[in-house]
Amino acid sequence: MMMRKSLSLRSITLMMLMAVLVWSVTLETCIARRGRHWRHNNRRSTDLSDSMSSKKPKSHGNSHHSSHNNNNSHHHKSKPKPKPKLQTPRKVDDNYNSPVVSQLPKVQPPSLPSLNESQVFNVMDFGAKGDGIRDDTKAFEAAWAAACKVEASMMIIPPEYTFLVGPISFSGPYCQPNIVFQLDGTIIAPTDSKSWGKGLMWWIDFTKLIGIKVQGKGVIDGRGSGWWQQDYPFIDGETKLIVPLNNSVNQNPPISEFDLKMPSIKPTALRFYGSIGVEVSGITIQNSPQCHLKFDNCGDVVVHDMTVSSPGDSPNTDGIHLQNTRDVLIHSTTLSCGDDCISIQTGCSNVYIHTVTCGPGHGISIGSLGKDSTKACVSNITVRDVAMHNTMTGVRIKTWQGGVGSVKGILFSNIQLNEVQLPIVIDQFYCDHTTCKNQTSAVAVEGVTYERIKGTYTVKPVHFACSDDFPCVDVQLSAIELRPVQERYHMYDPFCWQTFGELNTPTLPPIDCLQIGKPARNRVQSDHDVC
């Protein structure tokens, strides 16, 4: 009997041990499965963190490549994540300065592909010294000759060096396209008269190129004071309209640091001629003997985020000069000079200028046009979102008597003015001499719109002086608010002569001199004179 109870107890104990063993194995399996799932989720989280950190651009060794590698993060091994969709921002009224504008995503221009060593040409490798004393012109010419042979190459002017360079031409038409002139150092012009011979029209010249970029954080310094003193006094066509009080404005010639007499022909600091696909960005051009930046016979031009700087009394130092050039975009640029901040000459069309700061200087001008009885054609010009301070004129159209052709399709919009002498000007009697001959023919002016021109003036708010035979027609004015600030000059009311158009809103001050509608008769240009 006792033996049976003992066997029965052993059987129960054995069964309980087997049950515990099975339960423990099952529990371990469950924990292991949970562990695998947790580790998998943790690995995905780590991958996401790695992917976010991989957005930092890789280093490729050479610092001059850094600007081209910002968009190369897609070469990272991690799988790219889809970009979140941006909510379309609401349209902001131009009259309302909303903080929403600053929050809009900025569109970055496409970057150049990464360059290999065979595409990079540093002037230091071609014998440049960069001490600002020894002449580096030949080294620049040699570096360009090498870069010219390679498509999408880059010529590098490195930072922390100053290069003395004489008159130089970087020219095609045998150069490969899409060359980048990477300027991060400083280029200075020679100041001795011998380097210029009898005089040259340009200092640094790019000619007959396709896809040329001049970019960087460097400086082009024309050291032009040696020329400026020879042009004093400088007469602008509108100078006659500015009469000082009690002769209180004393102008003195700019002081030159050089005693040598320079040639009478003055060079433009940086010129582009006969080129297509031109871009200038980032650089500073200062103290040019004459124009700072000039485009002649070019197309598809972009200028942005650059600076022009010279004294307000430096004569004939236009900031940006356009001539026979089409399809132009200028924006996000600061211009300080002694003549027109931007000058638009004959043969220009499809020009869009916005977000520009101008001053000192002579404002933004179309012209002068038609000098020496020539034909001038300018059309489809937009200037908007511009700030001007302490300039002689604001937005101006100037033509000579005796010229032919036309200026049409012009928009000046949202111009903010601070103590500008003559904010709005059309002058078909432009003359920068003491006297000019009276002539009947004129460059016709039609279809000019002024809207939201606001700020302060110190001489006269509006000056419209149009031709008797070719009056200005279709001049539209709206939201003009100009308030006087008494300074050192006699002040005048708005002036209009032979100017026809519409006042779409009340203006301040009232511009009652504008003749509403169209002229009863208007002389018609011959077929030869029409643009």
TrEMBL record:
GO molecular function terms noted in the UniProt entry: polygalacturonase activity
Signal peptide start-end: 1-32
InterPro entries given in the database record: Glyco_hydro_28, PbH1, Pectin_lyas_fold, Pectin_lyase_fold/virulence
One BP annotation, GO: cell wall organization
Superkingdom: Eukaryota
Subcellular location: Secreted, Cell wall
Residues covered by region (Disordered): 42-112
Family: Belongs to the glycosyl hydrolase 28 family.
PANTHER family: PTHR31375
Protein name (record): Polygalacturonase
Originating species: Brassica oleracea var. oleracea
Record lineage: Eukaryota, Viridiplantae, Streptophyta, Embryophyta, Tracheophyta
